[in-house]
């Protein structure tokens, strides 16, 4: 666990214990060495970088903050050391990597790691500190969402969402370099390939040279240490001024040249987007996986960034809650992309009108009722049937007659958004219902759960307007059974039917594929 890491660091800083430091090396050397190999592509140079990183740790142990995520700190230190190690060949390597990427883009999916490996570390180092930390903990240390939440002092569901958002940002970075794939596949590939075991001999030598604070290392390793320390110090102290770092390494010394870059500022425009606040914010929260406590402007900015839009200053975004206006200052191309995203977020999900009937039916009538529609599922405790609108209307009219012997206990109804859970009750019987509209625009994936005194369950697809009937397999008293009818119909915001009964896009006398 991460807290144990910092306990070991504090213990080493206080006692200079070789055993304590060796434990830290043993625990983290594999992901440090793996990251070094990915970034420099040379096994010998990667070993030097690994040693340099742990020497830096030994030197700075006493200065690390108690809440430091050590694996993330070591990963960042590895990146800084690799910057020095790459020297002037860095640009050439990048060109070679990009050319190599283009040559294998059309190869089978099993080669996805060959595509991701050259981009992984640059991608991770483009992320914010927290996003980078959660991915390092997840993939390099194989931590669970619960363990990550404990390390970063957040709730487990917040950590899970943070992992998803960070992975999406990483996927966007990969896509810019022509590497496409589902987020889940990318996560699986990184998890399986990113950390390989470091050579056993390297573990021993790294521990020894780190404990000596680099006194016995080669001149080239010493150069890496000095360069990495300087970049770390500069990174910590840098302001918002845009600077570039050119690392010039000679055989016996290293120099960091910091040059201010004078870049032409892009031409920015201000554009105002009028949105329906309720719909826009609800869709934004769902898309970004963000809590409602965050400001709308921050949620929107984070989501636009995840879609590949650069929002560094002087670009800006603001939201006027009173007028439901989104003000965005960015380049024309950014604004055009944002306009499309806003249009998608402004889409209001269709509403579903659901009505439930709780009817006690004489046992003698149950069999004929269950033959009226299409039985789609027979479970241990209940039968599930789908009925067409005409069948449902005719049957309910018949059951309402006194001669039928049936008793209608209740007929509650509710209107909710597609995909939202709702509940209807009658006495001690409760129905939980979720109806989600599928992509075709008329099929509803519907889950119905009935509890107390009957426990019934249906999970089926129905056409718009069809009815699900749930019946227990057996009667409790031998005289009657409680049947639950649930009808789901698509309606607009004014309560009107989405699909006219005269112009249906489906055959109302059939049922969807289950």
CA-CA gap between termini: 45 Å
Radius of gyration: 31 Å
Count of strand segments: 16
Question: Helical amount among residues, as a percent range?
Answer: 40-55%
Label the overall shape.
elongated
Mean pLDDT: 80
Give short descriptive properties of this protein.
Ribosomal Protein S8, Chain: A, domain 1, four-stranded antiparallel β-sheet, 514 residues, seven-stranded antiparallel β-sheet, elongated, 17 helices, 3 domains, single chain, alpha+beta
Commentary on this structure:
The protein is an alpha+beta fold and 514 residues long. The protein folds into 3 domains: 2-228, no CATH class; 269-345, Ribosomal Protein S8, Chain: A, domain 1, CATH 3.30.1370; 351-491, no CATH class. 47% of the residues lie in helices and 22% in strands. Strands 6, 7, 8, 9, 10, 15 and 16 form a 7-stranded antiparallel beta sheet that branches. Strand 12 (429-437) and strand 13 form a beta hairpin. The radius of gyration is 31 Å and the shape is elongated. 34% of the residues are buried.
């Amino acid at each position: 666990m991460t807290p144990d890491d910092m306990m070991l660091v504090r213990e080493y800083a206080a006692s200079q214990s070789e055993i304590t430091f060796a434990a830290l090396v043993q625990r983290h050397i594999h992901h440090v060495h793996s990251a070094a190999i990915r970034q420099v592509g040379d096994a010998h140079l990667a070993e030097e970088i690994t040693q340099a990183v742990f020497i830096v740790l030994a030197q700075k142990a006493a200065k690390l903050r108690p809440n430091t995520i050590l694996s993330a700190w070591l990963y960042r230190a590895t990146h800084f050391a690799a910057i020095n190690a790459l020297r002037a060949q860095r640009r050439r390597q990048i060109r070679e990597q990009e050319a190599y990427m283009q040559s294998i883009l059309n190869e089978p999916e099993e080669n996805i790691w060959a595509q991701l490996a050259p981009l992984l570390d640059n991608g991770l180092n483009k992320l914010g500190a927290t996003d980078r930390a959660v991915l390092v903990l997840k993939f390099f240390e194989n931590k669970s969402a619960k363990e990550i939440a404990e390390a970063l002092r957040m709730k487990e569901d917040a950590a899970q969402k943070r992992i998803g958002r960070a992975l999406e940002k990483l996927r966007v970075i990969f896509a810019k370099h022509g590497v496409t794939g589902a987020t889940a596949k990318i996560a699986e590939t990184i998890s399986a390939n990113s950390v390989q075991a470091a050579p056993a001999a390297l573990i021993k030598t790294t521990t020894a040279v780190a404990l000596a604070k680099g006194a016995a290392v080669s001149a080239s390793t010493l150069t890496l240490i000095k360069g990495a320390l300087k970049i770390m110090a500069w990174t910590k102290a840098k302001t918002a001024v845009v600077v570039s770092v050119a690392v010039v390494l000679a055989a016996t010394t290293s120099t960091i040249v910091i040059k201010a870059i004078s870049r032409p500022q892009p031409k920015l425009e201000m554009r105002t987007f009028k949105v329906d606040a309720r719909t826009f914010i609800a869709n934004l929260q769902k898309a970004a996986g963000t809590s409602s406590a965050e400001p709308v402007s921050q949620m929107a900015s984070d989501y636009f960034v995840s879609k590949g839009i650069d929002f560094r200053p002087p670009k800006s975004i603001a939201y006027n809650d009173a007028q439901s206006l989104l003000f965005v200052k960015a380049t024309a191309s950014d604004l055009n992309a944002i306009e499309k995203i806003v249009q998608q977020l402004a889409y209001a999900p269709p509403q579903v009108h659901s009505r439930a009937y709780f009817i006690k039916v004489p046992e003698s009538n149950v069999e004929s009722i269950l033959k009226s529609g299409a039985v789609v599922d027979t479970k241990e405790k209940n039968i599930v049937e789908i009925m067409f609108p005409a069948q449902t209307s005719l049957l309910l009219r018949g059951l309402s007659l006194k001669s039928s012997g049936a008793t209608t206990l209740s007929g509650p109804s509710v209107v909710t958004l597609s995909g939202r859970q709702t509940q209807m009750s009658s006495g001690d019987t409760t129905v939980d219902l979720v109806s989600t509209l599928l992509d075709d625009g008329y099929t509803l994936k519907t889950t119905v759960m009935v509890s107390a005194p009957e426990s019934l369950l249906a999970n089926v697809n129905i056409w718009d307007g069809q009815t699900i009937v749930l019946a227990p397999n057996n009667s409790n008293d031998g005289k009657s059974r409680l049947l639950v009818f649930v009808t789901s119909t698509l309606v607009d915001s004014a309560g009107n039917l989405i699909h006219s009964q005269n112009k249906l896009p489906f055959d109302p006398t059939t049922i969807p594929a289950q």
